[in-house]
Amino acid sequence: MNLFDLAAQTGAECALSDGDIEITGAAGLDQAETGEVTFLSNPKYTNKVAATRASAIYVSESAEIARTDLAPLRAKDPYLAFTRAQIIFHPRADFEPYWDPTAVIDSSSRVPKVVFIDAHVSIGKNVVIGDRVRIHANVSIYDDVTIGDETEIHSGVAIRGNSVIGKRVIIHNNAVIGADGFGFAKDEHRHWLKIPQVGRVVIEDDVEIGANTTIDRASTGETRIKRGAKLDNLVQIGHSCTVGEDALLCAQVGLAGSSRVGDRVILTGQVGIGGHITVGDDAILYPQSGVPNDVAPGEILVGTPAFEVSAFWRAVAVFKKLGDLPKRIRALEKRLDEVEKSKPGE
After folding, report:
1. CATH number of 157-305: 2.160.10.10, 3.40.50.920, 1.10.3720.10, 3.40.50.300?
2. pTM of the predicted structure, to 2 decimals
3. What is the pLDDT of residues 278-297, one digit of tens each?
């Protein structure tokens, strides 16, 4: 693909003099070879531009490129433009229907001909599966599950009863959808009595769920992951939670039961959200933040308990100096003692 066409398809602009350069792939600054396009979105990596072997580079609209042998592609968001280039050069494989003879599918389930069902898949009663769904080896689908068109379920996934999976969802290896929520009541003898978990999980369209992530069914009602949300590996979603549209939950995030995460929220690694907590739209939580109270829309918080990010860093700056305080106090006490001893008539 020539550079002019690539720029047009990825939302970038290139000089007419560079338009005939042929581009065959896309890679990072360190990995790119001649004939490939790369990108620069973070200024701290500017020094790597001098050494890259790429033929073209996505840069911001105002960036200056000293190399005359490296064609600039100017974009409002270089990383987004590069991502679109990656999609062009690495398209999803063509769909090929397949039904492995080792798959076990209950006769009451509705499975179209245009599906991919790999070895040792188990599909229970009254399951409804859409067109062009890919179900890889060793997937277990319990009774009364619905799966929308073009969804892909990787090997080892378990989808428990009554779960609803939307269209174009991707569920990575060994995720568990719809396991019982963690609910127990203590009886008169101080023994734990299991609370029946009779709700369901609903995964809306265009959601991606990482490997070994678990999404628990609601005790009553539903646990819902809304359209476009992205969950990393090893995420735990407790019963009756809601995750908003286009939310981003990074690895080892945990949501306790009945918590609510708003639209476009970003929870970075190992964030913990307490039960019945609401995190407002567009909020961001820094890594390892512990959230015991509601978070207002748009807030950026860090720490345990989490508080406003600029206040946190001011507190950290003070905390670093605390180790010097005992020494300074002893010095002040010594000086005060010397002053007391030197007073006239004493």
Report:
1. 2.160.10.10
2. 0.87
3. 999 999 999 999 999 999 99
